[in-house]
């Protein structure tokens, strides 16, 4: 469904993505793990054309997104839902306005219809009767749920999750993981999640890919990753300071 070929991105002299290859199958949840600063968020932003890669291809079905003009890219972006790291809700807008933001901008729906969709999406993430509140009035976990409701508001075919469990307590993290699994069961979507949380990776992934020094160095099911012989992957998944991955 998505095929990323030979993706390169550098910022000044800093090489971030150095020939990244990855394929995501229809309906699959692919979890990309990697250390902080490895380029996980940059990769998601490249997929959404929020960052322009230097080289490479990103195929969605039969189309190379990077070969499209802005209008074509915008159309593709509409088919993706993104859960940004930290949620990125608009503080000065109500929950209703946050979740309905994309709908009001992209669709010619009447107010009644938009409010109904917002209610349905909030119900899907387990929230109700909070439309009139502002983000500051919600707990961290509720904000993540609202951000997820906003990400699915336009019925995306692909959901991108940037560190969905980072910065929340383990119990809330588990609830978010279950919510992600529920979304994938209920909705006909493919998902890409990036994280350094292995508990989350094992819980939500169909397959896990390790991003290291700008490339995917291994891809496998959680069971395969757990018993891999690759010392890089072993060091990462066991969270060890000792191994081939240097700390500096
Ligand atoms: N817009 C930008 N301009 C310059 N450097 C950037 C930009 N975005 C990301 N970087 C750099 O790219 C590297 C990867 O960042 P990022 O993708 O955010 O890492 P992570 O894997 O933690 O999500 C970091 O060194 C970061 O400083
Ligand atoms: Mg990041």
Structural commentary:
It is built from 9 helices and 10 strands. With 248 residues, the protein is α/β, with parallel strands linked by helices. The strands form 2 sheets. The chain has a 6-stranded mixed β-sheet with strand order 6-7-8-3-9-10, with helices on both faces. The chain has a 4-stranded antiparallel β-sheet with strand order 2-1-4-5, with helices on one face. The model has no long low-confidence stretch (mean pLDDT 92). Adenosine-5'-diphosphate is lined by residues 11, 14, 16, 34, 36-42. Adenosine-5'-diphosphate binds at residues 11, 14, 16, 34, 36-42.
SSE string, helix = H, strand = E?
Answer: EEEHEEHEHHHEHEHEEHH
- How much is the radius of gyration in Å? 18 Å
- Find the structural class using helix and strand composition: alpha/beta
**Count of DSSP-assigned helices:** 9
- Helix share, percent: 25-40%
The largest sheet is: 6 strands, mixed
Strand order of the largest sheet: 6-7-8-3-9-10
Number of strands: 10
Catalogue the ligands. Answer: adenosine-5'-diphosphate, magnesium ion
Strand content: 15-25%
Can you tell me the overall shape? Answer: globular
* Integer average pLDDT: 92
Uncertain stretches: none
- Terminus-to-terminus distance: 36 Å
Key phrases:
single chain, 248 residues, alpha/beta, 10 strands, binds adenosine-5'-diphosphate, binds magnesium ion
Topology of this protein?
Elements: E1 2-11, E2 14-24, E3 29-33, H1 40-47, E4 55-60, E5 63-64, H2 70-78, E6 80-83, H3 95-106, H4 111-124, H5 140-151, E7 158-162, H6 170-186, E8 190-195, H7 198-204, E9 207-212, E10 215-220, H8 222-226, H9 231-238
Parallel strand pairs: 3-8, 3-9, 6-7, 7-8
Antiparallel strand pairs: 1-2, 1-4, 4-5, 9-10
Helix pairs in contact: 3-4, 3-5, 4-5
The chain binds adenosine-5'-diphosphate and magnesium ion.
